[in-house]
Every structure is written in structure tokens, then in C-alpha cells.
Design brief:
Blueprint lengths: L11 H17 L12 E3 L5 E5 L2 H6 L4 E7 L4 H6 L5 E7 L5 E7 L3 H13 L4 H5 L7 H14 L1 H6 L6 H4 L2
Antiparallel strand pairs: 1-2, 2-5, 3-4, 4-5
């Protein structure tokens, strides 16, 4: 399928979805079209690098009114404990709609966490809606919940810039 279609990256899950549509079209006639949505991708390095959606350059080119939330996280206990030399995230949020338009993670478990952002983006879940999600109370997942709350709640971020104080990020 990848040789005849240039939508997205040549990823195994994409090819799997395309093969189901192709098989259905062969057996039942050409009645389904594939909806690619926002496809996350990963680079399996140490730490992993994961991305979904737009980059800053792409958002600028499209004229989107967006904000960038970025944090270098190596000072967090989770990364000191693992002795990771680098960890961070960058998330782009549409200021007008509170929609996540891009997420980029460099950290352990990035290949898993990026799927949370892909689901939110594909489901048109706003930052305010995502903020209501309660994650398991494991320390790392609790931290992720805090990150998502901060990243996605544009109006709260703009009104309360103190949320970005690193001391307030310590659990």
C-alpha cells in the first residue's frame, strides 16, 4: 500500500489500517475511504522521541493563532532517578479553540504517552476536556496528568502564569 499512497509516514500501523480498507474494497466494492487523522510517530532512541500533529513552522505557515508550551524536564526527580541526560516536551495549542495541534516528546515512555495526544487530537478533545481526565496515581502518570492539565488549559495558562513555576511542578 505504501508504494501507491504518500499519506503520512510509512509506519506498520498505517499499513495495517490501509490493508483492511483495501481488503474490504476488494471483497465488498470500493465503499470505504481511509481516515488517517493525526498519526503519531516515534524514533526508538534512548530516550525515545515521539511526535504527532504540527510543528511550529507548519502552524506558522497555516496562520494558526497558537501558543507553545515547552519544558526541559531533566531536573524532575523521574529523570534524575533514571540519570537521563535530556528530557522535554513541546506542545502546540490553538489559542482560539483550545485544541492541541501538535505534541513532541523526548523522554522515557514517549512512545506510549504520545498516543494520549493523538487520541485527544483525533477526537477533537479540548484542553479543558482533557484536563478532567484522572490518570492512575503512579508517580510518573500523576506527573503526566499535571503536564496535560498545564499544556491544555489555555485560558488557565494565560490567566495564571505561576503554573509554570518549577516549584509548583514538584509532587
Amino acid at each position: 500500500m505504501r508504494s501507491v499512497n504518500n499519506k503520512g509516514l510509512p509506519l506498520t500501523p498505517v499499513a495495517g489500517k490501509e490493508s483492511l480498507i483495501a481488503a474490504s474494497s476488494i471483497l465488498k466494492g470500493n465503499h470505504n475511504k481511509i481516515d488517517y487523522g493525526h498519526i503519531p510517530s516515534n524514533v526508538f532512541t534512548t530516550p525515545p522521541l515521539a511526535s504527532v500533529g504540527l510543528t511550529e513552522l507548519e502552524a506558522k505557515k497555516q496562520g494558526i493563532n497558537y501558543m507553545v508550551n515547552y519544558e526541559e524536564m531533566t531536573s524532575w526527580f523521574s529523570y534524575k532517578r533514571l540519570k537521563e541526560p535530556i528530557a522535554g516536551f513541546k506542545v502546540l495549542v490553538n489559542k482560539d479553540t483550545d485544541q492541541i495541534i501538535g505534541a513532541h516528546l523526548l523522554r522515557h515512555h514517549a512512545e506510549d504517552i504520545i498516543n494520549i495526544f493523538a487520541v485527544a487530537m483525533n477526537g477533537n478533545i479540548t484542553g479543558g476536556q482533557l484536563k478532567k481526565t484522572i490518570f492512575l496515581a503512579f508517580p510518573e502518570l500523576k506527573r503526566i496528568n499535571i503536564i496535560i492539565c498545564i499544556i491544555c488549559q489555555v485560558s488557565q495558562f494565560i490567566a495564571t502564569k505561576t503554573l509554570w513555576n518549577k516549584k509548583s511542578m514538584i509532587l
